[in-house]
Design a protein that fits this description.
Elements: H1 5-13, E1 22-25, H2 28-38, E2 43-47, E3 60-63, H3 65-76, E4 80-81, E5 91-92, E6 96-100, E7 104-115, E8 120-127, H4 133-138, E9 145-148, H5 157-166, H6 171-190, E10 193-204, E11 209-211, E12 214-218, H7 227-230, H8 240-247, E13 250-254, E14 259-263, H9 266-278, E15 285-289, H10 295-306, E16 313-320, H11 326-340, E17 346-352, H12 355-363, E18 369-371, H13 375-386
Parallel strand pairs: 14-16, 16-17, 17-18
Antiparallel strand pairs: 1-6, 2-3, 2-6, 4-5, 7-8, 7-10, 8-9, 10-11, 10-12, 13-15
Helix pairs in contact: 2-3, 10-11, 11-12
């Protein structure tokens, strides 16, 4: 669950982490009023959407006085903002954050995230980058430094001092960074965060550290432990297709290919995507049917694929486990086709718990199906059908 910038900053305030003085505005007049309340010579008006790279897309405006805030809000509110992280459709700006500008002596990047290779919390820091941080990190980012914190966050002073030195902080600034890192780590653990990113973290001319822009994502599997945070989710800010899928115990991401994919398990889903690509095909979606999904939930998920006009074939790659048997998924398949009325070729690879019973159920649905012995055969067959070669 990703939070808006203003929501993330509200949470960090609970942990005594300094953020700029700011107010949310839903109208240009509210933006002007917010600017007057903040009473700063220099201000920023920032579009609040659940995507990064807003500044590069014109979603962050530097202004002066209430009149400038009103004008910037008039231009942003109601506008579709398209960034490198929104897709071509963009997101509609429904609120802006009016915020005091901060005089910076130094600007840094700081993030806490889970290191999947070790299961530890890792701090990543380096020079501030206005955009393209993800791409920069993916290339190895030699100017970025990493410190493993573990779950309890305890580190020897020498380790933190070395980390501070590697990112250019010494003396009083290093001491304050050490304290901020401790509070940030506590916040990360207590709210079950998947990511806290501060970009930039500003070292002011008076020696204070201020989180000028914050991205905070909560682990979806832990949101139930934080009802106060769960209430911050606004369904209008979330992709409606993915939201509906999640409500039916399905993880679903729409893609631009023509091979519809039905899989139970995230790892199996990713492997299936790779195999379709290796076979020369193009997936129409990612799907992970959770073990808690019932046949009607599965029917809803498959129905989303049948509703996708780009999908030309349905590849069903199912492994029946102890909590979810093959026949449950096959029943969902039959229900989805009956509801949809669309005729689409189905390529299946089913194995595991109740696979023979699932085949018997499948025979009753009279679907245009091809069953394959293994994943590779199923991926190549589905690709051939989608491309008109079979």
């Amino acid at each position: 669950m990703q939070l808006h910038e203003f929501q993330a900053k509200d949470i960090l305030r609970r942990y005594q982490i300094d953020v700029p003085l700011g107010r949310i505005a839903l109208t240009p007049d509210e933006a002007a009023a917010a600017a007057r309340q903040i009473n700063s010579e220099s201000l920023f008006v920032k579009a609040q959407i659940l995507a990064g790279d807003r500044a590069a897309a014109g979603g962050v405006r530097a202004v002066r006085a209430a009149s400038g805030a009103r004008a910037a809000a008039s231009e942003l509110l109601g506008r579709k903002l398209v960034t490198s992280q929104t897709g071509p459709g963009g997101y509609t700006v429904k609120r802006v954050l009016v915020e005091a500008a901060i005089d910076a002596a130094q600007e840094l990047y700081l993030a806490l995230r889970v290191d999947l290779s070790s299961g530890s919390v890792a701090a990543i820091a380096g020079p501030h980058r206005r955009s393209g941080v993800e791409r920069h990190l993916a290339t190895g980012a030699p100017d970025f430094q990493t410190l493993t914190l573990g779950v309890d966050g305890e580190r020897r002073d020498g380790d933190i001092a070395d980390f501070c030195g590697r990112i250019g902080l010494v003396g009083d600034a290093a001491d304050k960074f050490r304290a901020l890192l401790g509070r940030l780590h506590r916040a990360f653990v207590e709210v079950d965060a998947a990511l806290i990113e501060i970009n930039p973290l500003i070292l002011t001319k008076s020696g204070e550290l201020v989180a000028a822009d914050v991205k905070l994502a909560i682990d979806d599997n832990a949101v139930f432990r934080h009802p106060d945070i769960a209430q911050l989710r606004n369904d209008e800010d979330v992709d409606q297709v993915q939201l509906q899928a999640q409500r039916h115990q399905i993880n679903y991401v729409l893609m631009d290919g023509d091979v519809g994919i039905v899989v139970n398990g995230a790892g199996l889903g990713l492997a299936t995507l790779d195999m379709v690509r290796a076979a020369g095909g193009s997936p129409a979606n990612f799907m992970d049917i959770r073990t808690t999904a019932k046949s009607l939930d599965i029917a809803h998920g498959i129905g989303m694929i049948l509703d996708n006009p780009r999908a030309k074939v349905l590849l069903v790659n199912v492994y029946g486990g102890g909590m979810q048997s093959c026949d449950t998924i096959v029943d969902g398949l039959g229900i989805a086709f009956r509801r949809s009325g669309r005729v689409m070729p189905v390529v299946l690879r089913i194995t595991g718990n109740s696979e023979n019973f699932a085949r018997m159920r499948l025979a009753n649905f009279n679907l245009p199906k091809t069953e394959c012995a293994d994943m590779w055969q199923a991926a190549t067959r589905a690709t051939a059908i989608a491309q008109g070669r079979a």
